[in-house]
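Moderator note: this is an archived Q&A kept for reference. The question asked for a predicted structure of one protein chain; the sequence and the answer are reproduced below.
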Amino acid sequence: GVNWCSPIFAEVYVHVEPEERGRGRGRAVVNALVEELLRQGITPLYNVTDGNDISLELARQVGFVDTGAREIMAQVVRE
């Protein structure tokens, strides 16, 4: 799925139940999302939680590169 999307970036995610892992389903979903985002001119981002080696490996298989970024920034806007 896509957690959030701006006109230039979108965060991609996938969750595969443990009993379904190893069949290429997560990779297929992420590949399809990435292809569609790139077609729209949107840069896909993939955030991996520390210690989630399975997700990190999936990201690498799809072509994501570790940027070393570890800081998450957020801003709350109240109207």
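Archived answer notes: The mean pLDDT is 85.
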